[in-house]
Every structure is written in C-alpha cells, then in structure tokens.
Write a structure and sequence with these properties.
Elements (H helix, E strand, L loop, with lengths): L9 H4 L3 E2 L2 E2 L10 H8 L5 H7 L5 H9 L5 H7 L5 H9 L5 H7 L5 H8 L6 H8 L4 H8 L2 H23 L8
Antiparallel strand pairs: 1-2
Helix pairs in contact: 4-6, 6-7, 6-8, 7-8, 8-10
C-alpha cells in the first residue's frame, strides 16, 4: 500500500514556501513523506537519524530530535541547533538526560523552554521555575508534564498533613 503524500501540490500552490521554510522551487527538498514517516518511527535506524540530523529543514531535524532512538550525543548536538524548535524537541525527548533538558529550560526562547518543560525527568526545582515562567506556552507545557502532576500531588498532600497537625495541636508550633 502506498501512502499519499499530504504535501503533494503545495509547491505549486505556494511557490518558494515548503514546511515553513523558503527554498528555490527549481531545487525541491530531498525529503519524501515516507522518509518523514520513517524518522517519526522510534524503531528508525540510528544511522538514518544521524544522516538527517543536519538537514536544512528544521521540521526534519525536529523529527530526528523527537525520535526515542536518537543517541544522547545526537540529542546534545541538536540541543545546540540555531532553531529553537529543534532545541525544544531535543530537550523534550525522554531519551535525553534530565540535566540536558534542565539546561535547555533556561534558553532565551520560550519554544525551547516549552520543549524542556515536557521532559519527564526534570527536577522539582526546574518544574517550579517553569511553572512561573513569563510565557504561557511554557507554563502550559509544564502543567501537562506527568512529573508536574506528581509534584503538585505531593505538595497538596504535604499541605494537608500540616493543616491536620495544626488542627490537632493548635498550641504547638508548626511551621507556618
């Protein structure tokens, strides 16, 4: 069964603009829809990921960065990419080290920080900092992270214990 390319005909309808990036229409991109599907598959060959890691289109580099089969060293190099989306995708990959995501969480660009906010292994301090980020996209991303939910449940449980202790012993000094 052959998969139909959903981008077929886009170059004719929007000359010079494909996948959000300008290029010379006479020299179309060397990527196919099937290649994008392959890069999205977590069973993708790591050598293929390496080959496309420096592709000129950021969407392709993002696909590589999101792949769980990408090596830690490849994710690190993608974390240095000029494009904030690629940095964010690399930081969100659960295969990347939490410290790497925490470093990207301090990026100047909110899209990169939002990507780091999606990493499941970031520490509590980073979670709380991103929850107070000035950008709503970053705050939204952290609030969808299961690690955030776990931390909030722990904090709520701790607050409930303190309230209960205060009610049982109102004359005792419990940290307020």
């Amino acid at each position: 069964m052959t998969t139909k390319d959903p981008f077929e005909g886009e170059a004719e309808r929007h000359p010079g603009f494909i996948c959000g990036e300008h290029h010379d229409v006479r020299n179309p991109p060397e990527i196919t829809y099937e290649t994008i599907l392959t890069l999205a598959d977590d069973r993708c060959d790591p050598q293929l990921l390496e080959r496309y890691a420096d592709h000129r289109f950021s969407i392709v580099r993002c696909m590589v960065a999101l792949n769980r089969n990408a090596s830690v060293s490849l994710l690190y190099s993608l974390g240095l990419d000029n494009d904030e989306s690629v940095r964010g995708c690399a930081a969100s990959n659960p295969s990347s080290e939490p410290k790497f995501a925490e470093t990207i969480s301090e990026d100047d660009h909110p899209i990169a920080r939002a990507g780091a906010a999606r990493h499941p292994g970031i520490c509590d301090r980073t979670i709380l900092r991103l929850d107070n980020d000035s950008d709503s996209q970053v705050r939204g991303a952290i609030r969808h992270n299961p690690a955030y939910q776990k931390l909030m449940n722990t904090l709520k449980a701790s607050a409930a214990i303190v309230r209960e202790m205060r009610q049982k012993s109102p004359n005792d000094t419990v940290t307020k």
